């Protein structure tokens, strides 16, 4: 199974985007078949997303530790290591345990600019048995890169990841 950017080049229409996310879901299931290790799964998921979804400059996890997030497996440039729940888009996601889909990060109060090239951001909570384990953060240099179809697609892929992962194998 190939994991190339070209698999997702046509996300210009809702039907094309839905087909792309169906393919991503199938790839996610294939990657995690028979693997439960938390660190391996989070690293593989980050790489899969970063290398198959166009228009991203960062994709990865921040792990919940008390009232802050600590950098986890990711793909992209160097990143902020610690983010308090009280700051930034990732902190807002962790604090509210709700998806943050931000069209213009520069207009978001308290935005943390780890990479000045980022223009939009999507952050999804990773909840296991009602507990926040992490947030999955996606940054894009494109304004308004993310929409409701992206939210649904990534939520479905994260559900596969969550079910396939032994969360007790991760520190925390």
Automatic annotation (TrEMBL):
<dbReference type="InterPro" id="IPR029016">
    <property type="entry name" value="GAF-like_dom_sf"/>
</dbReference>
<dbReference type="Pfam" id="PF13185">
    <property type="entry name" value="GAF_2"/>
</dbReference>
<comment type="similarity">
    <text>Belongs to the free Met sulfoxide reductase family.</text>
</comment>
<dbReference type="InterPro" id="IPR000614">
    <property type="entry name" value="FRMsr_CS"/>
</dbReference>
<protein>
    <submittedName>
        <fullName>GAF domain-containing protein</fullName>
    </submittedName>
</protein>
<feature type="domain" description="GAF">
    <location>
        <begin position="56"/>
        <end position="162"/>
    </location>
</feature>
<dbReference type="InterPro" id="IPR003018">
    <property type="entry name" value="GAF"/>
</dbReference>
<dbReference type="InterPro" id="IPR051330">
    <property type="entry name" value="Phosphatase_reg/MetRdx"/>
</dbReference>
